[in-house]
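Support case: FE2/S2 (inorganic) cluster complex. Customer-provided input:
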Amino acid sequence: MNNTEMTPSSTPWFFACQVGDVPRNGGVCVKRGTEQIALFHFARTDSWYATENLCPHRRQMALSRGMTGSAGEMQEPKVACPFHKKSFSLLSGKCLSGEHYQIKVYPVKVEAGNVYIGKDPIRQDIDASGEYLECAS
Ligand code: FES
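Agent response - structure generated as follows:
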């Protein structure tokens, strides 16, 4: 289950790394300019996910070092921040720990052993006014 099904075909991509650069069932931090993106690989399902690396709880650049897993009956992929264990859906970016935090999620695709991340976040984290939902702190 990847999030690329929700990605328009016109999505611009940037090269992130090679498949072998990402630990199985773990994450890495990919830098794009001043932006940090957490990239995760779930080896059992060979699924890839990307989110902003910033945890909105105490604004730590930490999510790429978080523990990955799944939540609920739907086995929703998630990451838990290594600082205070707040967890976030890797599909929606919603906080699964009961708070109103929201992180950006990005599409990921793999081609010929190379991993690409969409330059724009998936738009499900935009509110009715067209603005990104604020990351509470
Ligand atoms: S800084 Fe991530 S849970 Fe607190």
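The CA atoms of residues 69 and 136 lie 24 Å apart.

Case will auto-close in a few days if no follow-up is received.
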